[in-house]
Amino acid sequence: MPYYKRKYTENENILRTHLADDINKIARELKGRTVLQDHQLKRILAVENPEDRVSELISTLKEYRGGHFDAFMDCLTYFHHDKLVKEIKGEPVTRSHTQQTAYKKAEDDTRPVCRTESVIRSHTQPTAYQKVEDDTRAVPGSQTQQAAYHKVKDDTGPVPRSQTQPRDKNEVCEITESGSMKDSHERLWISMTERIVYQLQHDLDDAMMRLYQAWIIDLDDKNRINKISKEKQEVDAARELVDLLRNRGDNVLERIIKALKPKFNIAKELEYELNN
């Protein structure tokens, strides 16, 4: 079952309960955003019971490939159903102040101790991360130590592109692959193009930063996309980026998913579709 249909099916009851009071406004807003057509809106509003109207809306959205899932979630956020959206997407709901305090304390007890804290908390033993970091800085230029340093960094978070090799633009171009995606990957990419564009256009700079750090696009690509964004619209720039990514090597889809997954829900959808 596609990602969007699974989400709609699993959450239909909770959507019926939470959206019954706002269903008319939501349906009209979706019509205004060209998600629904006029005859579809009339059919939904003609249903007598508000909760059944919600079910009719969900059934209508399921008819579309992709289900206009992102547009629907965006519409719910517009009507202040933020918590519901996070629950449907499987994102963590913001904690209460008490929970945040308890979480912060637990985090402080387990996170690596930085250099400034080590003076205050001298009783705490240095972490493995600190040890490798200190060792690699002791003898500048040691390739073995630098490799060990970057390995530990890779285990704890992304290494900023400025700290990785190569830095020379010609070498970057060699790493940035070219060529079409695998046929099966390209078919999936094309089928989900509109949803990818819709999501990336709202945070294009962040998307490009992540793709750039993953060596999927280079500086020339970033400059070209930014120029389109300034001269036209974000959606045109996002569409150009999506077209460009189709020609970054036969295995680029997995790399794109890995780069975007921490921030962009569309990457999780792509991963689900790819593996099912």
From TrEMBL:
One Gene Ontology term from the biological process aspect of the record: regulation of apoptotic process
TM stretches of this protein: none
Upper taxonomic lineage: Eukaryota, Metazoa, Spiralia, Lophotrochozoa, Mollusca
Domain CARD residue range list: 181-261
Region (Disordered): 132-170
UniProt xrefs under PROSITE patterns: CARD
SUPFAM superfamilies: DEATH domain
Protein name: CARD domain-containing protein
Matching Gene3D superfamilies: Death Domain, Fas
Origin: domain of life: Eukaryota
